Amino acid sequence: MTILAYDLGAGSGRAIVGRLTDHRIVTQEIHRFANEPVKVGPHLYWDILRLYHELQQGLVTAKQERMVPESIGIDSWAVDFGLIGRSGELLGNPYHYRDPHTTGVMDELIAELTAERIFEATGIQFLSFNTLYQLAALRREDSSLLKEAQRLLMIPDLLRYFMTGEMINEFTNATTTQLYNARQQEWDRKLLSHIGIPSSWFGKPVQPGTSAGRLRSSLMDELGLPAIAVTAVAEHDTASAVVAVPALSDSFAYLSCGTWSLMGTEVSEPVIHEQALQLNFTNEGGAYGTYRLLKNIMGLWIFEEYKRECERNGHHASYGEWLSGVEQAPAFQSFIDPDDPIFLHAGDMAKRVADYCRRTNQPIPASRGAMARCIFESLVLKYRYVLELTEQLSGKTFDGLHMVGGGIQNRLLCQWTANAIARPVWAGPAEGSAIGNLAVQWIAQGAFRDIREARAVIRDSFPVDVYEPQDQEAWEQAYARFCRYVEVPVQ
């Protein structure tokens, strides 16, 4: 049985074919492509039609390689969306979540509604680019898009619609909008009414594993393909990554590590109370009756943007050369809070890191290696802080941390994470989101009984690297200094 997972990240996308052989998963990447936003005037957009073209190219490659799949699933990042007009056409390119048009909108809505009211309904972390604030920004600007719109589709919903002609909202991504009422299990009509958005734009979200149609006839004719089934998987890429965590028990902590880092645990019910609000945790929908109690951390974005900045200035180095420079730089010289708002938008990261260090009376990193080391050390120390908060909120204690996603290919980051949290790190699989996407399709088809069996097969199919903590005294001292400089209380 051959199936296909499209996994779209903030910087790239991939098409991965999966097969089950002797109760082992075999995957093959058949197409990889860049996902580069486009800036036009003051705004930053996703090149959504290019992404759709790349999905088609994945199918063309599958056909050429005699691997036509029996089903297809799509996962991507959260919060961004497209608006569909009366004729069924897309109204404009979707905004990128790093576009500045939402500046100030979150604070305005909190002042109008209170953070307590919004969190009590949705259980979602306050991030300035959430769908709630993107729509409120469009309403504030009196956008013409809102006058013509009839439906709102999240990015995987939208790409699925292009492929099938079916407009379906999926649960895990719907919950990230901060417009879905976690208690009532439906779109929050009062929030929508407050920002002037009709509830008719939203369909009842379907659960991961739901059939979402088949390839539309025009696409079948164009590509010479049969009516391949399309499944609504756990379409938020983190939800798919959590499906793929090869945990031995139902109680575990995870870190999905890439451009963003998302750390948390699975819970059976949303954790919605004052402490969760104050700590700005989120309760996003998961697969198979779970919620993901987690916190977004800025992740590798700061380093990636800094690396691009250096390349624009003529410094071209491999990832290995970067890590060599990091290891040669002195340890624990300066720290930043990766989640400080100054690091959210694209731009001069070296200047922003320097400004942060200057503001907190720390040495400014004096070389590229030192700058990267400051970023990496700060990131893993923030992981420790969030892991301990996760234990407080969930009432659980974790023996170690499961890391999945492309970031685990940075072995230095994995080892430093183990050092920082003073516990083992189990790293793998790297293609967590794609593998979780495949797993949901197989569960829907009956190839696996449930998620426990799927995780057991994933555990047997992909290597997991174990990192044991080292240099504990030095990292303990560094963590105390980190907490002081980023103004968080030591747990």
TrEMBL record:
Keyword Kinase attributed: yes
EC number: 2.7.1.5
Keywords: ATP-binding, Disulfide bond, Kinase, Nucleotide-binding, Rhamnose metabolism, Transferase
The Carbohydrate kinase FGGY N-terminal domain, residue ranges: 3-243
Homology family: Belongs to the FGGY kinase family.
Protein name, entry field: Rhamnulokinase
CDD domains to which the protein is assigned, alphabetical: ASKHA_NBD_FGGY_RhaB-like
One Gene Ontology molecular-function label: rhamnulokinase activity
Residue stretches making up the Carbohydrate kinase FGGY C-terminal domain: 253-444
A Pfam cross-reference name: FGGY_C
